Fold each of these.
Amino acid sequence: MRLSRIIMAFTVGLAVAAVPTAAGAAQPQPQPPGYVPQLLLTLNPTAIPLGASFTLHGSGFTPNGTVTIDVSISALPPVAAPAQGTARRSDGSTVAMAAVAYSKPQSSQPQPAPLHFSVTANSAGEFEVSYTPTRVGRYTFTATDEASDPDRTASVTGVVYQKRPPKPPHHDGGGHLPVTGSSLNTPMKLGGGLLGSGAVLLLLTLAWRRRERLGLGGR
């Protein structure tokens, strides 16, 4: 009996001693002197159609420091060009094209997106900025922490592709549009006329045969 009490008291003592240790481990530990957080730069989404926007997010930068962002653009892998004088549809087929002279007004041209700009990190060393590209290509964003010495950088890459044109409206399997009531007027009139002509010819044929049968035909 005495031994079981000793074991129980020892177990309770260990549990009480472990509580402060666990609580201390749960508290955020101060970073050692000279610690520098790792820079992280992300892009969401990583691929967008032309006209949409990227969201650029950075973390690990100097709190309240200036971050400069440089953008470089490279061409996407080329797509096989259609034959001269033709254009490629969205389904991969080609269609003949006729030359048309047209000049878009300069005022309607979108302003090119900047290739160099700056943002300010918040007190936690993070920032978030939206970027809208104006041309197709592969975009590489490089963020530089200007407040660090030496300068630290982080990069991320995204793709901007050409948005496909809308598909033409779907018709029936024969490729014909449905016929409306007004479109039926002419075929019905034509059919009625042919039917009447056929009836007259049939009556004339029967009358001629009857006349021949009675011997009234001309000799």
Note: Residues 35-80+111-161 form a domain with the Immunoglobulin-like fold (CATH 2.60.40.230).
Amino acid sequence: MTTIELARFRVEDAAVDRMVAERPAMVEAMRRRFPGCLAAYLTREDDGGWLDVVLWRSRAEAEEAARSIDTVPECAAWFRHISASSGLRHVEVVDAWPDPA
């Protein structure tokens, strides 16, 4: 079942431009290592925090990536921009438009 990964975090203002600039390389490396990654959206919340939304083909693939994401050098380097994390969670897509499959 398609799964959405939600990761809420904070980034110091001085690191925002670099974080955004390095995002495409990080996502490409993640997609190469984890082909179950279907889409990724970096969003900024009204309070200045960030929410990373990643669409996965399955919960198993999302959970495997979460366990081993630090083994991807570009991902580990990108995570250095995060000053505080509010955690990671996975939710299963029950209905969608358009259908992500």
Note: Residues 3-91 form a domain with the Alpha-Beta Plaits fold (CATH 3.30.70.100).
Amino acid sequence: MRVLVAEDERLLADAIAEWLRREAFAVDVAYDGDDALSRLRINEYDVVVLDRDLPVVHGDEVCRAVTEVAAPPRVLMVTAATAVRDRVAGLAIGADDYLTKPFAFVELAARVHALARRTLPAAPPVLDRSGIRLDPGRQEAHRGTTRLQLSRKEFAVLAELLRADGAVVSGEQLLERVWDEHIDPFTNVVRVTVMKLRRKLGEPPLVETITGVGYRLR
């Protein structure tokens, strides 16, 4: 799952991004509204954490632009304004949720998880297939009764394969959904991560490589 954090307070933006990466999200950061719009034109996001008071292009304009795309990401609007009329105004222009500063990172992450699930309505909160049970909210994965000790990227790759429900997921799609824009598109990180994931999943093998196409769960 991929998230854009649009926040002009750089320390806060970077802290939010780091917290969400710990939750196995791929995260990009924009420090002003123009940068946010540029990234939205290039990348597909599941959720945008959007500071309403962005410089250059106001957060309200960014929110309106988000809602006009064919498959818009969910928007969590963040602001220091606490008045009810401000929250109502933010929701009226297209935000899906609203959070006032200061906030606890754990609450922000929970709201992002909830919004991300709404972008994939067919996927249940807990993913269960091929003997694998994965709970994104708790960041837990089990094969049968055995708890899997996965890295954040291994967890995220497994989640994408489970959401595909047996369909093939290409390496390019995994790069797009699990890693952020700073990843080298020619890297072998997907292959290496899948290899480590296979080893941790154990026997019999579950992740199948479709040569020249991608990966799927048996």
Note: Helices lie at 10-22, 33-42, 59-67, 84-92, 105-119, 152-163, 171-178, 189-201.
